[in-house]
Amino acid sequence: MVPTLSIKDLTVSFGKPGRELLAVNGVTYDVQPGETLGVVGESGSGKSVTLLAALGLLPSPPARISRGSVEFQGRDLARMDAKKVRQIRGKDVGFIFQEPLTSLNPVMTIGDQIAEAIVVHDQNIGWQKARARAVELMSLVGMPDPERLAKQYPHEFSGGMRQRIVIAIAIANNPKLLIADEPTTALDVTVQAQILDVIREAQEKTGAATILVSHDLGVIAQMASKIVVMYAGRVMEAGDAEDVLENPLHPYTAALIECAPTMESELKDIHPIPGQSPSLMEMPSGCPFHPRCRYRQDVCASRVPAYRAIGSDRHVACHFVEETAEGGRLVVPAAIDA
Amino acid sequence: MNHISSQEKGFRVVTDEEMREVLRVEGLTKHFAIDKRLFGQPRKWVQAVDNVTFGVRGRGTLAIVGESGSGKTTVGRTIARLLKPSSGRILFDGNDIAQIDERSLRGVRKEIQMVFQNPNASLNPRMTVRQLLCEPLIVHQWPKEEHRPRIEELLETVGLPHSYVDRYPHEFSGGQRQRIAIARALAIRPKVIIFDEPVSALDVSVQAQIIQLLDRIQADTGLASIFISHDLSVVRAISDDVVVLYLGKVMEAGPSRELFGSPRHPYTQALISAVPKMHKRKSQDARIVLKGDLPSPANPPSGCRFRTRCWKAQDICATKAPELEGDAKRHFVACHFPN
Predict the structure, then answer these.
(1) A63 pairs with which residues across the strands?
(2) Quick one: which of A313, A80, A97, A69 has its CA closest to A211?
(3) Which of A160, A173, A327, B142 has its CA 20 to 30 A from that of A78?
(4) Domain assignment present for B145
């Protein structure tokens, strides 16, 4: 099957050649039609920048794709002219961002905003039909009394309702790819649960491949079938979501799971990761996680571990993960006690 | 170091000293006028906090949880007397501080401190760490010769190297800045610190560091704290007692283990159920997804405020507000049909 989006060895740099900072460094992953891929990482891990760069949404300069390729349904986006990329982005890709209020036009009724998304990409439909379709979309994302609400403005809605509107716009043109970047981070938990359900339904209706970017492992676990764990601009581990969360191979993934308080864990089960994520200006040599890793060895500071396949369904970038009959395991002399 | 975690506290025999409440809030109510006019009395009010009662035990952490608009921050600010309560009592050391004047507040401010969510906003960018930590000592007239040793001690407590003392806030990461804010709140040895979403703006790995830091400080100093948060998994990890607020009213309150172990109010059940679980296989319970959003606090529903989103709501819920009733385990619930 041709993946909907395929990112290979993508490297994004900022600044002048020779003094550039790498925000994304050799990232590879793809997402198949109908599948939900969860991208997890802390702030500054490059999880959003990867996608923005891949879809040509980063202003250049200062950003530059210095290496790698991006294919959308088998077509190379990097070699396409800007106008064509824009068409694909608008029609075939739907975006849902964290803060719905900044995605919406404050002086346009929400019915017109949804209709506009349809009219722009389908010259033949006409406003009247587009508005009718907008009302349909609003009821699809669970808005009560859509005909009346279509005439209202964004400020008249709560955060959860605004995010539903953004989702309606995102799926207006039956996109092939849905990108949800921290879609529920600004919302209350009870509303988060509703919105995750709406995204799941929207995906089922459109059959779109979905990339869900989040810092919340719980949200990823609920939604994603595959997971990509990023740190300091690199992919640390990727694989089947449930497997990775049950049996993490990379020390960073394991540490990330152990430091997040959950409804099952006690205080004594929470193990903070010492230190903090590196800034782009002070990227450690070798494996970027090595200064915070309990299992670090000399080689970790001198050599970047290769991102390689472990077993049939897992990729890991760590010197000390080896393949076994059951999948893989971490082989290190001893842990350094913090 | 004599380190007692909250978990171990649960299994120890609770002494009288610990049972004694450091701070008690009774019938706390705060209304804000929303149609302030030049002349005459305002006619419209938001009941941000309505008749809230709870006690904070010595060495204990009381968590206030709720969604945005629940009034949790207003409760915190009112206790710190950054806001004046509309009515109700705030008993601290046996004295009611709810209505006392600014002058008498000085003494109270020394004992009740506050840490906010965003350290960028609460730390003056033009002051060094030394100046930031010195300020509370000067305000509360500590002898000058004690400043330097106290600052060294504080930096050690919050885990920052002493060499950072002449740096400015912008030179630190978010987690480190929050450590400075905590050190500042600790400076004059208060009895109570109110933490308002202290870890919400931090990355998970750093969040865990701060949670453990707070737990250690509490074990070492015997500080009582009020921890305001929307994040139930964080609250579950660090609190001894929990108060669940919805539209300014207490829905349920009680010891943490009791409340999370067997929640009795439908709202608490829904809140707990809504937290995304990391392991799908282990969480087979049916998820409760509430309908709709939080109603406007300016126009709350009649009777029980939660009834418009409650799946158990009956006619009585619209006409009569349920009383907060407790059992022998100090587990309180305000619901006509509790579990």
Answers:
(1) A14
(2) A97
(3) A173
(4) no
Which one-letter DSSP state was computed for residue B82?
A: S
**Which pLDDT tens digit goes with each residue over A298-337?**
999 999 999 999 988 899 999 998 888 777 888 877 777 6
Residues 45-104 of chain B whose Cβ lies under 8 A from any Cβ of chain A: 67-68
B214: closest chain A residue by CA: A267
CB-based contact, B217 to chain A, within 8 Å: no
Q: Which residue has the tokens 């996680």?
A: A289
B247, B83 in Cβ contact below 8 A? no
Q: Which two tokens stand for residue B223?
A: 């500080």
Cross-chain residue pair B274–A189, CB shorter than 8 Å: yes
Residues 245-284 of chain A whose Cβ lies under 8 A from any Cβ of chain B: 245-246, 255-257, 259-268, 270-274, 276-277
**Taking a C-beta distance cutoff of 8 angstroms, is the pair A185, B231 a contact?**
no
Q: A255, B272: Cβ pair inside 8 Å?
A: no
CB of A232 within 8 A of CB of A288? Answer: yes
State the count of interchain CB pairs (< 8 A) between A and B: 138
CATH classification of the domain holding B101: 3.40.50.300
**Structure tokens belonging to residue B306:** 């939660």
Domain that holds residue B71: 6-111+190-333
What the block records as the tokens of B119 is 């350290």
Q: What angle, 0 to 180 degrees and rounded to 10, lies between the N-to-C axes of helices A110-121 and A127-140? A: 120
Please state the CATH superfamily assignment of the domain spanning residues A5-224 in this structure: P-loop containing nucleotide triphosphate hydrolases (3.40.50.300)
Contacts of B278 in chain A (CB under 8 A): 217-218, 221, 245, 257, 260, 262, 264
State the helix-helix crossing angle for A127-140 and A159-170, rounded to 10 degrees: 130
Residue spans of the domains in chain A: they are 5-224, 230-327
- A-chain residues near B9 (CB < 8 A): none
The interface predicted TM-score of the complex, written ipTM, equals: 0.83
Q: Answer whether residue B128 is part of any domain.
A: no
Of B204, B238, B289, the CB nearest to A194: B289
Helix-helix angle B204-221:A251-259, to 10 degrees: 50
Instruction: Quick: pLDDT tens for B187-210.
Output: 999 999 999 999 988 888 889 999
Chain B positions in Cβ-Cβ contact with residue A188 (cut-off 8 Å): 67-68, 230, 294
Amino acid B243 reads V
Structure pTM?
Answer: 0.87
